[in-house]
Design a protein that fits this description.
The structure holds three protein chains of three kinds. By secondary structure, chain A is an alpha/beta fold. Chain A has nine helices and ten strands. The radius of gyration of chain A is 18 Å and the shape is globular. The chains are: A alpha/beta, B mainly alpha, C alpha/beta. Chains A and B meet through helix 2 and helix 3 of A and helix 8 and helix 9 of B. Bound molecules: adenosine-5'-triphosphate (ATP) (2 copies) and magnesium ion (MG) (2 copies). Chain C: Belongs to the ABC transporter superfamily.
């Protein structure tokens, strides 16, 4: 299915981010090959969202390097990184509240193209994600889960090379989580994806290799079945939750 | 109709419909016919409302569309007026001075805007900086009463301003200069054109990205747009508009003075926009009309404390019509016709509503 | 103790809830399940007083509170953990907790320390700004802050969102312990089936702004019943 050349699409070298005394990201060496669907898990405050923000230029690293497709992108501003083809859904819904869902998608779609193509992209996303019921509504007036869908739609409308999703299933009902998982697997045939999630059912549906963050560092990186049985991962993260 | 009223509440990138164009045509016809019924003095009063409405638009465009509150509009307004005055008194023709009255404030906006936007000033510091610039220019202009302050043949005259600013000539026929009613027509035409232009701007990708910046600047950047570039361009455009207004003001009154840069004027612009409703384009125009006529009416009634009364009015408006007159009235009408008013947006975003009328 | 009758509520002229009724007894934990956009948050916001219902009534211990504002209901010790957390971003964690305590007497009485004992993970974050916390830390803070008001009824809107699995279990344990040692009641909106199952005495299924069915705790342990409702279109 995935017939990409196995070269790293994104790579970090000794990446560090500290907020005052807090080392949110601590000398992280992370490599992601083109075509992967990688899951990131780890305790609350482990530094997952911070890591995503570093990758997308929303915050600048204290030290270390970020390479995208072989180019050094450390310190570039977020719009430049977005142009190179990284799309992100942040953890908190990050949308245009005063605009309709369609206008939200349109802003995402039209960036590098003409009006017609943008309109077509928007319709495609509306179809694929089944947003028809509320696409005309103001996003600020949508239910939480519906806002999440709009944001995922915005990321998709840009057709980036790398998609970062910070807790996509939050606020979704069980049925939608299944749908999201299927969607991600389908998307993964053309796009490299990294997903942060706390829902282990969801992880098990989509995951292959899982990276575990703990206290800003990578604690484990292995196949999902191995990781979820790892005693240390259980200890700091899963607790007694049955996942196997 | 319902759709039209809803538009009064919220921004839209859709092309304006027939109702909107009909509204423009009716407004244009009324403006064109008014001189038939009004005396010269009344026409003069109405003209200045139209001229100042341009200034109000320059602010509401920045504030309502992209979310930048600039107190610097009066700086560009004053610059436009002074540039026209000085140039027109130095040159034979007034065509070039008219254009300079727009272009120089625009350049000024470009330079100042560049440093403020790319210097990553936060929104509040941006507002404060523009205020400081206005104050400095006002002070500087007041200090030019000495005879050494001459541009070409023209003395700047400090506090006293420059009287006898030449009237505008017809570009292709410099013998003919514009009289009061002509100035009125020119102002009306400019206002309508600018209004249409700003409204149509919203339907362009540029306009929609601007609205996006107001709603969520971070998200705009994450989609790959360089928000700073858009902010700078918007600031430059609004500087040009304010300059145009100042130029027309100098032509209208044949006079420029440092008050054009003054704090009072800066405050007035904000009052117009707030009273009328910053999220709309028509609101500020209405705001200018109301406040201007109210001011002169109060003056005629012999109310000494006009400023005080205006202050009270502002407070009443802010409390009673949170979004300004036009959006509130639109909402009221919507309720009357039984439709659902727009605008029940979740926490935090109700400050950010905009519209396209 | 908390009772809502025939609630019609929504935004503008458009009702989202169509005559919904709900009753929570002393010390009862009631779960609410429903698909996206079915009106769960609208119900919570109506119960806490952010939205005034168009018709219907809400009462607490028999006394009508339909018209009372949100702050009044807070004083009556109805606690609310909203979807989206709404912590104060520029206040520290400690200050956020203080804001949750209703009266000065309570603050001095050490309610914050008491709650912190149940939330050891917040201890080392006490001086950090609320806005600097990670998503899960914020959610934890929102729950803790609500408990600082010593609520008689807690309205929880998807409280486990963003929280790691082991802490979700700890919170379930904590809420069960609180049920034992006090008479607090809970209305719990949740998508996490294990969590809602662990806590709820009854689960109401909300569909298109109304209660379409009530499930007992037993029903919930039957995977078939659950599937039927979770899969319901
Ligand atoms: N601006 C900041 N100032 C200080 N500390 C911060 C700041 N931003 C994040 N932190 C801290 O850095 C740590 C990592 O936060 P991050 O949001 O990356 O965690 P996370 O892994 O995404 O957690 P969660 O699963 O809860 O979302 C947290 O302990 C957080 O409190
Ligand atoms: N502020 C608002 N103005 C207008 N309509 C709204 C507003 N908030 C929500 N709605 C609409 O009301 C309906 C119910 O929303 P609500 O937030 O109650 O859903 P929910 O059941 O909590 O969904 P979720 O599981 O996604 O949180 C949705 O269709 C939504 O679009
Ligand atoms: Mg996070
Ligand atoms: Mg909800």
């Amino acid at each position: 299915m995935k017939d990409f050349a196995a070269k790293p699409l994104i790579e970090t070298r000794q990446l560090v981010k500290s907020f005052g005394g807090v080392q949110a990201t601590d000398t992280v060496d992370f490599i992601l090959k083109e075509g992967e669907l990688r899951c990131l898990i780890g305790p609350n405050g482990a530094g997952k969202s911070t890591f995503f923000k570093l990758l997308t230029g929303q915050i600048a690293p204290t030290s270390g390097k970020i390479l995208f497709d072989g180019d050094d992108v450390t310190g570039l501003s977020s719009f430049e990184i977005a142009r190179r083809g990284i799309g992100i859904k942040n953890q908190k819904p990050d949308v245009f509240d005063g605009l309709s869902a369609r206008e939200n998608l349109w802003l995402a779609a039209q960036f590098d193209t003409d009006k017609k193509t943008a309109d077509r992209r928007v319709e495609k996303v509306v179809d694929e994600l089944k947003l028809g019921a509320f696409v005309h509504k103001l996003v600020g007036e949508l239910a939480h889960g519906q806002r999440q869908w709009v944001e995922i739609g915005m990321v998709m409308a840009r057709s980036p090379r790398l998609i970062l999703l910070d807790e996509p299933s939050a606020g979704m009902d069980q049925e939608e989580r299944v749908r999201t998982a299927e969607l991600l697997k389908a998307l993964n045939t053309t796009t490299t994806i990294v997903v942060v999630e706390h829902d282990m059912q969801f992880i098990k549906r989509i995951a292959d290799i899982v990276t575990v963050f703990h206290r800003g560092k990578i604690l484990r990186e292995a196949h999902v079945d191995i990781v979820l049985r790892d005693p240390e991962v259980r200890n700091v993260y899963l607790g007694r939750t049955e996942v196997a | 109709m319902v759709k039209f009223l809803q538009r009064l509440q919220r921004p839209s990138g859709e092309r304006p419909g027939a109702a909107w164009w009909a509204f423009i045509v009716i407004a244009a016809v009324i403006l064109a016919l008014l001189p038939q019924t009004l005396g010269l003095a009344q026409l003069l009063d109405l003209s200045v409302v139209l001229v100042l409405a341009l200034l109000a638009l320059s602010m509401s465009f920045l504030w309502g569309y992209i979310g930048i509150l600039s107190f610097g509009q009066t700086a560009f307004f004053g610059t436009g007026g002074y540039v026209y005055a000085v140039a027109a008194m130095n040159f034979d023709s007034t065509t070039l001075p008219f254009l300079l009255g727009i272009v120089l404030p625009m350049l000024l906006a470009a330079v100042l805007g560049y440093f403020m936007v790319y210097g990553k000033l936060s929104d509040i510091y941006f507002s404060v900086m523009t205020l400081v610039i206005t104050l400095i220019m006002n002070k500087a202009m007041r200090a030019t009463s000495g005879s050494q302050y001459v541009v070409g043949d023209v003395r700047l005259n400090g506090q006293n301003g420059i009287p006898g600013v030449p009237p505008l000539q017809v570009p292709w026929n410099p013998e003919v200069t514009l009289f009061i009613d002509h100035v009125y027509y020119l102002a009306a035409a400019l206002l309508i054109l600018v209004y249409i232009g700003l409204r149509l701007l919203l339907t362009t990708p540029f306009g929609r990205v601007m609205i996006g910046i107001r709603e969520n600047e971070q998200r705009i950047e994450l989609l790959g747009y360089d928000a700073r570039r858009y902010k700078l361009l918007a600031f430059i455009l609004s500087g040009a508009l304010a300059g145009l207004s100042g130029t027309m003001f100098a032509i209208w009154g044949n006079f420029v003075a440092p008050e054009m840069f003054g704090l009072d004027r800066a405050a007035e612009v904000i009052i117009w926009v707030i009273v009328g409703g910053k999220a709309t384009l028509i609101g500020p125009i209405v705001g200018v009309g109301i406040i201007q006529y109210l001011t002169s009416w109060l003056g005629m009634q012999g109310v000494g404390q006009v400023t005080l009364v205006l202050g009270v009015i502002l407070i009443v408006f802010v409390l009673a019509f949170k979004d300004g007159l036009v959006p509130t009235l639109g909402n009221l009408l919507l309720r009357l016709v039984g439709a659902r008013p727009e605008g029940h947006i979740k926490k935090g975003s109700d400050l950010k509503k905009g519209s396209d009328v | 103790m908390l009772e809502a009758k025939n609630l019609v509520s929504g935004y503008g002229a458009l009702p989202i809830l169509h005559g919904l009724s709900l009753r929570v007894d002393d010390n009862e934990y009631v779960g609410i399940l429903g698909h996206n956009g079915m009106g769960k948050t609208t119900l919570m916001r109506t119960l806490i007083g952010h939205i005034t219902p168009m018709s219907g009534s809400i009462s607490l211990d028999g006394a009508p509170i339909t018209g009372a504002g949100a702050h009044k209901r807070a004083r009556m010790r109805i606690g609310y953990v909203p979807q989206g957390r709404e912590i104060f971003p520029s206040l520290t964690v400690r200050e956020n907790l203080m804001m949750g305590a209703l009266s000065g007497a309570e603050k001095r009485g050490g309610i914050v320390e008491e709650v912190l004992a149940d939330f050891p993970r917040l201890e080392r974050l006490l001086e950090r700004n609320g806005g600097a916390l990670s998503g899960g830390e914020q959610q934890l803070l929102a729950i803790a802050r609500c408990l600082c008001g010593r609520p008689r009824v807690m309205l929880l809107d998807e409280p486990t969102e963003g929280i790691q699995p082991s802490i979700i279990d700890e919170i379930a344990d904590l809420l069960l312990a609180i049920r034992k040692r006090s008479s607090m009641s809970i209305v719990l909106v949740e998508q996490n089936l294990d969590f809602i199952q662990a806590l709820s005495d009854r689960v109401l299924i909300i569909h298109r702004g109304n209660v379409s069915r009530t499930l007992t705790a037993n029903d919930l342990s039957d995977p078939e019943v659950v599937n039927e409702f979770v899969g319901m279109g």
